Amino acid sequence: MHEKLLKTMELPYAFIVLPGGFGTLEELFHMISWAQLNIHDKPIGMLNINGFSNGLLSFVDHAVKQKFITQMA
Q1: What sign does the CA torsion over 66, 32, 23, 17 have?
Q2: Are the C-beta atoms of residues 47 and 18 closer than 8 Å to each other?
Q3: At CA 41, angle to CA 38 and CA 44, rounded to 5?
Q4: Are 9 and 34 contacting, i.e. CB atoms less than 8 angstroms apart?
Q5: Backbone phi, then psi, for 28, in 5-degree steps?
Q6: Rounded to an integer, what distance in angstroms lies between the CA atom of residue 41 and that of residue 27?
Q7: Of 6, 19, 46, 64, which residue is 20 to 30 A from 58 by alpha carbon distance?
Q8: Which pTM value belongs to this model?
Q9: What are phi and psi of 56, to 5 degrees?
Q10: What's the confidence (pLDDT) of residue 54?
Q11: Diameter of the chain measured on Cα atoms
């Protein structure tokens, strides 16, 4: 999996996340973590179709408010 993520990071100009399962979430959080570590500076977007990601976004907002993670611009 790590080789796929490295290749994924080399190719695109941006990352767009579609609704998906655990593999999609793993890749999303890898890209976010790597952005925080300055491994890449590519934009990351999430396509929130019919509110699919609302729960995840609420969780991230909560984690920021509780200061477990930092807010990224």
Answers
A1: positive
A2: yes
A3: 120
A4: yes
A5: -60, -50
A6: 16
A7: 6
A8: 0.79
A9: -65, -45
A10: 97
A11: 35
